[in-house]
Amino acid sequence: MEEELRPNGTQFEGKEEYVKEVFTEIASYYDEMNELMSMGMIKRWHRFMMKKAGDIDSKICLDIGTGTGEIAFLLAKNVGKDGKVYGVDITPRMLEHADMKMKEQDIPRPIIFEVGDALSLRFQDGYFDVVTSGYMLRNVTDIQKAINEMFRVLKPGGRAVVAELSKPNNRFIRFFYNLYMNHRVYWLGKKYGGGKKINGKEPAYEWLTSSIEGFPHGKEMTDKFKKAGFEDAQYFVKSLGAVNIYLGIKK
Protein backbone atom coordinates (compact mmCIF):
# COMPACT_ATOMS: atom_id res chain seq x y z
CA MET A 1 0.00 0.00 0.00
CA GLU A 2 1.44 3.32 -1.06
CA GLU A 3 1.99 5.98 1.59
CA GLU A 4 -0.54 8.81 1.54
CA LEU A 5 1.30 12.11 1.24
CA ARG A 6 0.03 15.24 2.95
CA PRO A 7 0.71 18.37 0.87
CA ASN A 8 1.64 20.41 3.95
CA GLY A 9 2.99 17.65 6.15
CA THR A 10 1.58 17.07 9.63
CA GLN A 11 -0.17 20.14 11.03
CA PHE A 12 -2.08 20.74 14.25
CA GLU A 13 -3.10 23.61 16.48
CA GLY A 14 -0.20 24.93 18.54
CA LYS A 15 2.46 23.27 16.38
CA GLU A 16 4.93 26.18 16.44
CA GLU A 17 5.02 26.33 20.24
CA TYR A 18 5.17 22.55 20.49
CA VAL A 19 8.15 22.41 18.10
CA LYS A 20 9.96 25.08 20.14
CA GLU A 21 9.42 23.03 23.28
CA VAL A 22 10.58 19.83 21.57
CA PHE A 23 13.88 21.35 20.48
CA THR A 24 14.38 23.12 23.79
CA GLU A 25 14.01 19.74 25.49
CA ILE A 26 16.44 17.87 23.22
CA ALA A 27 19.05 20.59 22.59
CA SER A 28 21.69 19.11 24.91
CA TYR A 29 21.71 15.70 23.19
CA TYR A 30 20.48 16.65 19.71
CA ASP A 31 23.83 16.10 17.94
CA GLU A 32 24.41 12.71 19.52
CA MET A 33 20.90 11.52 18.68
CA ASN A 34 21.24 12.71 15.08
CA GLU A 35 24.39 10.65 14.70
CA LEU A 36 22.62 7.59 16.10
CA MET A 37 19.38 8.11 14.15
CA SER A 38 21.25 8.50 10.86
CA MET A 39 23.44 5.44 11.60
CA GLY A 40 26.48 7.67 11.22
CA MET A 41 25.51 8.94 7.77
CA ILE A 42 24.60 12.51 8.65
CA LYS A 43 28.07 13.96 8.04
CA ARG A 44 28.09 12.41 4.54
CA TRP A 45 24.73 14.01 3.80
CA HIS A 46 26.08 17.38 4.88
CA ARG A 47 29.22 17.03 2.75
CA PHE A 48 27.00 16.23 -0.23
CA MET A 49 25.02 19.40 0.49
CA MET A 50 28.24 21.42 0.34
CA LYS A 51 29.04 19.93 -3.07
CA LYS A 52 25.64 21.01 -4.35
CA ALA A 53 26.13 24.48 -2.90
CA GLY A 54 29.04 24.91 -5.32
CA ASP A 55 31.94 27.33 -4.92
CA ILE A 56 30.92 29.55 -2.02
CA ASP A 57 34.26 31.24 -1.39
CA SER A 58 33.61 34.84 -0.25
CA LYS A 59 29.84 34.30 -0.51
CA ILE A 60 27.03 35.26 1.87
CA CYS A 61 25.12 32.22 3.16
CA LEU A 62 22.14 31.52 5.38
CA ASP A 63 21.34 28.31 7.25
CA ILE A 64 17.66 28.21 8.21
CA GLY A 65 16.61 26.09 11.17
CA THR A 66 20.30 25.92 12.00
CA GLY A 67 19.81 24.14 15.32
CA THR A 68 23.22 23.51 16.89
CA GLY A 69 24.96 24.87 13.80
CA GLU A 70 26.41 21.76 12.12
CA ILE A 71 25.60 22.85 8.55
CA ALA A 72 26.45 26.47 9.31
CA PHE A 73 29.92 25.43 10.46
CA LEU A 74 30.53 23.67 7.14
CA LEU A 75 29.41 26.77 5.27
CA ALA A 76 31.74 28.95 7.36
CA LYS A 77 34.72 26.72 6.59
CA ASN A 78 34.05 27.10 2.87
CA VAL A 79 33.23 30.81 2.55
CA GLY A 80 36.63 31.88 3.87
CA LYS A 81 37.49 35.08 5.70
CA ASP A 82 35.76 37.27 3.14
CA GLY A 83 32.47 35.39 3.27
CA LYS A 84 29.69 35.63 5.82
CA VAL A 85 27.35 33.04 7.33
CA TYR A 86 24.10 33.55 9.23
CA GLY A 87 22.28 30.85 11.14
CA VAL A 88 18.67 31.34 12.23
CA ASP A 89 16.44 29.17 14.39
CA ILE A 90 13.23 29.66 16.39
CA THR A 91 14.65 27.92 19.46
CA PRO A 92 17.05 30.01 21.60
CA ARG A 93 18.31 26.94 23.49
CA MET A 94 19.56 25.35 20.25
CA LEU A 95 21.38 28.56 19.36
CA GLU A 96 23.02 28.63 22.80
CA HIS A 97 24.56 25.26 22.00
CA ALA A 98 25.59 26.49 18.54
CA ASP A 99 27.37 29.46 20.13
CA MET A 100 29.15 27.20 22.61
CA LYS A 101 30.27 24.83 19.84
CA MET A 102 31.52 27.71 17.69
CA LYS A 103 34.34 28.35 20.19
CA GLU A 104 35.76 24.94 19.30
CA GLN A 105 35.43 25.32 15.52
CA ASP A 106 38.29 26.20 13.20
CA ILE A 107 36.45 28.80 11.13
CA PRO A 108 37.93 31.99 9.63
CA ARG A 109 35.06 34.23 10.71
CA PRO A 110 32.33 33.86 13.39
CA ILE A 111 28.83 32.85 12.32
CA ILE A 112 26.02 35.24 13.15
CA PHE A 113 23.50 33.11 15.04
CA GLU A 114 20.13 34.68 15.75
CA VAL A 115 16.54 33.79 16.57
CA GLY A 116 14.44 33.88 13.41
CA ASP A 117 11.31 32.48 11.82
CA ALA A 118 11.68 30.47 8.60
CA LEU A 119 8.28 31.78 7.48
CA SER A 120 9.19 35.43 7.92
CA LEU A 121 12.91 36.06 7.51
CA ARG A 122 14.12 39.54 8.42
CA PHE A 123 16.51 39.76 5.47
CA GLN A 124 15.98 41.83 2.35
CA ASP A 125 15.18 40.34 -1.04
CA GLY A 126 18.13 38.91 -2.95
CA TYR A 127 20.67 39.16 -0.12
CA PHE A 128 22.15 35.64 -0.07
CA ASP A 129 24.18 33.56 -2.50
CA VAL A 130 23.27 30.27 -0.83
CA VAL A 131 20.53 29.17 1.55
CA THR A 132 20.68 25.80 3.32
CA SER A 133 18.35 23.94 5.62
CA GLY A 134 18.55 20.56 7.32
CA TYR A 135 15.51 18.60 8.58
CA MET A 136 13.54 21.79 9.23
CA LEU A 137 10.62 21.70 6.79
CA ARG A 138 8.77 18.96 8.68
CA ASN A 139 8.62 21.31 11.66
CA VAL A 140 7.12 24.41 10.04
CA THR A 141 3.43 25.24 9.83
CA ASP A 142 3.58 26.07 6.11
CA ILE A 143 6.10 24.26 3.89
CA GLN A 144 5.39 26.32 0.79
CA LYS A 145 5.81 29.60 2.64
CA ALA A 146 9.18 28.46 4.01
CA ILE A 147 10.40 27.61 0.51
CA ASN A 148 9.00 30.90 -0.82
CA GLU A 149 11.12 32.73 1.76
CA MET A 150 14.24 30.85 0.66
CA PHE A 151 13.59 31.96 -2.89
CA ARG A 152 12.91 35.56 -1.88
CA VAL A 153 16.17 36.10 0.02
CA LEU A 154 18.36 34.49 -2.68
CA LYS A 155 20.16 36.48 -5.34
CA PRO A 156 19.59 35.57 -9.00
CA GLY A 157 21.82 32.55 -9.59
CA GLY A 158 21.64 31.68 -5.89
CA ARG A 159 21.11 28.14 -4.64
CA ALA A 160 18.89 26.56 -2.01
CA VAL A 161 20.17 23.21 -0.71
CA VAL A 162 17.79 21.42 1.63
CA ALA A 163 18.02 18.05 3.38
CA GLU A 164 14.91 16.29 4.63
CA LEU A 165 14.19 12.85 6.02
CA SER A 166 11.89 10.62 4.01
CA LYS A 167 10.71 7.02 3.86
CA PRO A 168 12.25 4.64 1.30
CA ASN A 169 9.98 3.82 -1.64
CA ASN A 170 11.27 0.26 -1.96
CA ARG A 171 8.99 -1.93 0.16
CA PHE A 172 11.75 -4.36 1.17
CA ILE A 173 14.05 -1.55 2.34
CA ARG A 174 11.11 0.23 3.99
CA PHE A 175 10.39 -2.85 6.12
CA PHE A 176 13.82 -2.67 7.75
CA TYR A 177 13.67 1.13 7.87
CA ASN A 178 10.40 0.93 9.83
CA LEU A 179 11.89 -1.62 12.21
CA TYR A 180 14.82 0.68 12.92
CA MET A 181 12.75 3.85 13.32
CA ASN A 182 9.96 2.27 15.36
CA HIS A 183 12.15 0.26 17.68
CA ARG A 184 15.80 1.37 17.81
CA VAL A 185 15.15 5.11 17.45
CA TYR A 186 12.14 4.92 19.78
CA TRP A 187 14.31 3.20 22.41
CA LEU A 188 17.10 5.75 22.02
CA GLY A 189 14.64 8.62 22.33
CA LYS A 190 13.15 7.13 25.47
CA LYS A 191 16.63 6.59 26.90
CA TYR A 192 17.67 10.20 26.34
CA GLY A 193 14.36 11.98 26.87
CA GLY A 194 12.70 9.62 29.33
CA GLY A 195 9.52 9.44 27.24
CA LYS A 196 8.42 12.80 28.64
CA LYS A 197 5.40 14.28 26.86
CA ILE A 198 5.75 17.81 25.48
CA ASN A 199 2.78 20.15 26.05
CA GLY A 200 0.60 17.08 26.54
CA LYS A 201 1.57 15.75 23.12
CA GLU A 202 4.10 13.21 21.84
CA PRO A 203 7.52 12.92 23.48
CA ALA A 204 10.22 14.67 21.48
CA TYR A 205 11.66 11.78 19.49
CA GLU A 206 8.29 10.24 18.82
CA TRP A 207 7.45 13.49 17.04
CA LEU A 208 10.69 13.52 15.09
CA THR A 209 9.92 10.06 13.71
CA SER A 210 6.13 10.35 13.30
CA SER A 211 6.51 13.69 11.47
CA ILE A 212 8.08 11.78 8.56
CA GLU A 213 4.79 9.93 8.01
CA GLY A 214 3.01 11.36 5.00
CA PHE A 215 5.59 14.12 4.57
CA PRO A 216 5.90 15.21 0.91
CA HIS A 217 9.17 14.16 -0.68
CA GLY A 218 10.79 13.64 -4.06
CA LYS A 219 8.80 15.11 -6.94
CA GLU A 220 6.10 16.41 -4.60
CA MET A 221 8.72 18.54 -2.88
CA THR A 222 10.48 19.72 -6.04
CA ASP A 223 7.06 20.84 -7.29
CA LYS A 224 6.91 23.14 -4.28
CA PHE A 225 10.35 24.54 -5.17
CA LYS A 226 9.13 25.23 -8.71
CA LYS A 227 5.97 26.86 -7.39
CA ALA A 228 8.16 29.19 -5.30
CA GLY A 229 9.95 30.28 -8.49
CA PHE A 230 12.93 27.93 -8.75
CA GLU A 231 13.03 27.05 -12.46
CA ASP A 232 15.72 24.44 -11.85
CA ALA A 233 14.71 22.10 -8.99
CA GLN A 234 15.89 18.55 -8.46
CA TYR A 235 16.38 16.01 -5.69
CA PHE A 236 18.94 13.37 -4.81
CA VAL A 237 18.07 10.21 -2.91
CA LYS A 238 20.62 9.25 -0.27
CA SER A 239 20.97 6.29 2.08
CA LEU A 240 18.48 4.13 0.16
CA GLY A 241 15.76 6.75 0.49
CA ALA A 242 16.12 7.67 4.16
CA VAL A 243 16.95 11.25 3.19
CA ASN A 244 16.47 13.44 0.14
CA ILE A 245 18.68 16.40 -0.74
CA TYR A 246 16.87 19.12 -2.70
CA LEU A 247 18.57 21.68 -4.93
CA GLY A 248 16.80 24.76 -6.24
CA ILE A 249 18.56 27.35 -8.41
CA LYS A 250 17.12 30.83 -8.76
CA LYS A 251 17.46 32.03 -12.34
Automatic annotation (TrEMBL):
Q: Name one GO biological process term.
A: menaquinone biosynthetic process
What superkingdom heads the lineage? Archaea
Residues noted as binding S-adenosyl-L-methionine in the record, renumbered to the chain: T68, D89, D117, A118
Establish whether keyword Membrane is in the entry: no
Q: Please name the InterPro entries in this protein's record.
A: SAM-dependent_MTases_sf, UbiE/COQ5_MeTrFase, UbiE/COQ5_MeTrFase_CS
Q: What is its EC number?
A: 2.1.1.163
Do you know which PROSITE patterns this protein is assigned to? Answer: SAM_MT_UBIE (PS51608), UBIE_2 (PS01184)
Q: Which Pfam family is an annotated match for this chain, by its short name?
A: Ubie_methyltran
What are the protein's UniProt keywords? Menaquinone biosynthesis, Methyltransferase, S-adenosyl-L-methionine, Transferase
What GO terms are given for molecular function? demethylmenaquinone methyltransferase activity
Q: Which Gene3D superfamilies match?
A: Vaccinia Virus protein VP39
Catalytic activity from the UniProt record: a 2-demethylmenaquinol + S-adenosyl-L-methionine = a menaquinol + S-adenosyl-L-homocysteine + H(+)
Q: Does the keyword Methyltransferase apply?
A: yes
EC main group: transferase
Which pathway does this polypeptide act in?
Quinol/quinone metabolism; menaquinone biosynthesis; menaquinol from 1,4-dihydroxy-2-naphthoate: step 2/2
Q: Which family does it belong to?
A: Belongs to the class I-like SAM-binding methyltransferase superfamily. MenG/UbiE family.
Q: What does this protein do?
A: Methyltransferase required for the conversion of demethylmenaquinol (DMKH2) to menaquinol (MKH2).
Matching entries from HAMAP family are given as: MenG_UbiE_methyltr
Q: What is this protein called?
A: Demethylmenaquinone methyltransferase
Q: What is the species listed in this Swiss-Prot or TrEMBL entry?
A: Candidatus Methanoplasma termitum
Q: Which gene encodes it?
A: arsM1
